[in-house]
Amino acid sequence: NGIGLAIVVPSTQSLVADLTEDNNRRTAFGWLQLSAKLGPIIGRRIAFHLVAQISVVVGILVRLYSKDPRFSDTDGKGCRDQILRWSLVSELKFLIKETKSVVIIPSF
Length: 108
Hints:
The protein is an all-alpha fold. Helix content is 67%, strand content 0%. It is elongated.
């Protein structure tokens, strides 16, 4: 907390002071202080949970709607048919197996 906050707090206050107009500065500092005090009340882990949920949604959307240009059908031979297509269940089983192999590694 000590060294990190000693670096971050003055720079954020300077940034807020530089980016706001004189008549809006007190509101900006109020929001800055509110977020600094409200964060520990809500819990520091909430940020990680929110990022994880957003990442899952984005991953699903990418899986559903993106196309890999390496496997496009440009030569007319239908190379998409040659790709091994996993079902959703087999992909989830593979991901769970890989996740377990990482989680069981002692970290301390």
